[in-house]
Amino acid sequence: MERKNYPVGSENYHLVEEIGRGSSSTVFRAICKPLHETVAIKILYLDQNDLGSIAYEAQTMMLVDHPNLQKAHCSFVSDHYLWIVMPFMAAGCCLRIMKSDFPNGYEEAVIATILRGVLRGLEYMHHHGDIHRDVKAGNILVDSDGAIKLSDFGVSASLFDAGDRQCSRNAFVGTPCWMAPEVIMEQNYGYKADIWSFGITALELAHGHAPSSEFLPSEVLYRTLRAASPGLDHKTDKKFSNSFMKMIDMCLNKDPCERPSAQHLLKHSFFKKARSGDYIVRKILTGLPTVGDRATEIVVKEEDLVAKKRKISQDEYNEGIIAWNFEVEDLKTWSSQQVLDGEASTSCKDQVVVQQRGRFTVVIEIDEHNAQCQKLGKKKCSLNRNDK
Ligand SMILES: Nc1ncnc2c1ncn2[C@@H]1O[C@H](COP(=O)(O)OP(=O)(O)OP(=O)(O)O)[C@@H](O)[C@H]1O
Fold first, then answer.
1. Which ipTM score applies to this complex?
2. What's this model's pTM, rounded to 2 decimal places?
3. 309: helix, strand or coil
4. Where on this chain does ATP bind (predicted)?
5. What is the pLDDT of residue 157?
6. From ligand 1's centre to the CA of 134, what distance in Å?
7. Using CA positions, which residue lies closest to atom 6 of ligand 1?
8. What CA–CA distance (Å, rounded) separates 83 from 141?
9. Whose CA is nearest to atom 20 of ligand 1?
10. Exposed/middle/buried for residue 296 (C-beta within 10 Å: 0-12, 13-18, 19+)
11. What is the assigned CATH class of domain 10-87?
12. What is the pLDDT of residues 326-365, one digit of tens each?
């Protein structure tokens, strides 16, 4: 098939509407003028981001060639912004569809279909020596024909890299609720970290939210390390099958060596429930508002929420409880006061070293004396900047 040439240069694209906003970028639906084609364009602000990882994301997206991985047509720099031109995925991401129309999660056959697509994409990535490192519903895109693609390679890493990127493979990256224990511990983790995040994503799609999402990110990390792995509940999740429950349990084994590979997992009986793209269209896409309309609705809701949160966090701060926000002084204040409910760890080895994207090193320690006296692991946290 003849490959189309997507032109570089912002003058070749007409931005129609905002369809998504990530932590470091805004995504637009746009028209490629010379080709008269609808595309999605992710625009990243270069001065706010780590150039290395941005270049890597653009490069990875251009090189991937798999029906379940989001590809980039081209990328270019315009006025300090990096533009990544990609195929437009008309239904947006699974998270947004779920938040707007399926707040309590999807039915099992839909989940199996979505997850099979993701797993095929992961199998390809792992086979080519890449780890995704940010598998979650927010990074699973759906097209109008029900096609599923894993996106957002912003934090992916190559298993074959040496030097700087090899170091970044040991770094603390991803999103707290979906992070594998070995990633939090900064062990030399591999592609099995994606299988953990995949298991968490399965629970997210089943319940409408990731496990522990109600906790502060710092607390989530601590629970991932200390508490039993999450899973489907025999009593409250009766509508789901045993094979779904077992598949999730296999992914959420704390020992990465015991987790199956993507290739192995694809053979699990749970994926026999997966259906075609048509099924996704019928079950979740029919009658959905457009991504643009949903994005506008979400931006309005988010702005409302931010305003409310600003007020709440000021109130919480006044009470001595503050959120995980990596403001050094705030974090120090928070951590010196923090005690996790119900944690009763008394082990002498209770020291956890956490690093956030190479900028800060956070050392969380359990105060053993307190742990023994109060039957509570009192958590102390110190934070050092790495770029000094
Ligand atoms: N090709 C696309 N077609 C349609 N919608 C898209 C496309 N790419 C991204 N989006 C929408 O934009 C949102 C943000 O995109 P993306 O996750 O790539 O940004 P990000 O800055 O990397 O986010 P984060 O770092 O917070 O995960 C997605 O959740 C999705 O709703």
1. 0.94
2. 0.76
3. helix
4. 42
5. 55
6. 12
7. 92
8. 19
9. 22
10. middle
11. alpha beta
12. 333 443 344 334 433 333 332 323 334 343 333 333 343 4
**Which atom of ligand 1 sits closest to the CA of residue 93?**
31
Residue 192, SS3?
Answer: helix
Q: Cα–Cα–Cα angle for 296, 299, 303, nearest 5°?
A: 145
Dump the DSSP string for 67-100: TTB---SEEEEETTEEEEEEE--TTEEHHHHHHH
> Which residue among 13, 141, 296 has the greatest number of ligand 1 atoms within 8 angstroms of its CB, and so is best to mutate?
141
List where CATH 1.10.510.10 sits in the chain: 92-323
**What residues contact 261, with CB distance under 8 A and at least 6 apart?**
123, 126, 191, 192, 195
Q: Return the number of other C-beta atoms located less than 10 Å from residue 374's C-beta.
A: 12
CA distance linking residue 236 with residue 239, whole number of Å: 8
34 close to ligand 1 (CB < 6 Angstrom): no
- Map residue 36 onto helix, strand or coil: coil
Pocket residue to mutate for ligand 1, from 151, 201, 204, 356, most atoms within 8 A of Cβ = 151
In 3D space, the residue among 313, 375, 331 whose CA is nearest the CA of residue 218 turns out to be: 331
3-state helix, strand, coil in the chain (%, to 5): 45, 20, 40
Which residues are within 8 A (CB) of 360 and not within 5 positions of it... i.e. 6 or more apart? 326, 328, 383, 384, 385, 386
Report whether residue 26 contacts ligand 1, using a CB cutoff of 6 Å: no
pLDDT tens digits, 5-57: 999 999 999 999 999 887 778 999 999 999 999 999 999 887 655 666 677 66
Ligand 1 centroid–CA 378 distance in Å is: 38
Distance from C-alpha of 131 to C-alpha of 167, rounded to nearest angstrom: 14
Q: What is the DSSP letter of 46?
A: G
Q: Which amino acid is at 318?
A: N
* CA gap 22, 321 in Å, rounded: 26
Architecture of domain 92-323: Orthogonal Bundle (1.10)
Residues of the chain with CATH 3.30.200.20: 10-87
Does residue 189 contact residue 145 with C-beta atoms inside 8 Å?
no
Q: Among this protein's residues, is 134 annotated catalytic? A: yes
Closest CA to 252 of 186, 190, 195, 176: 195
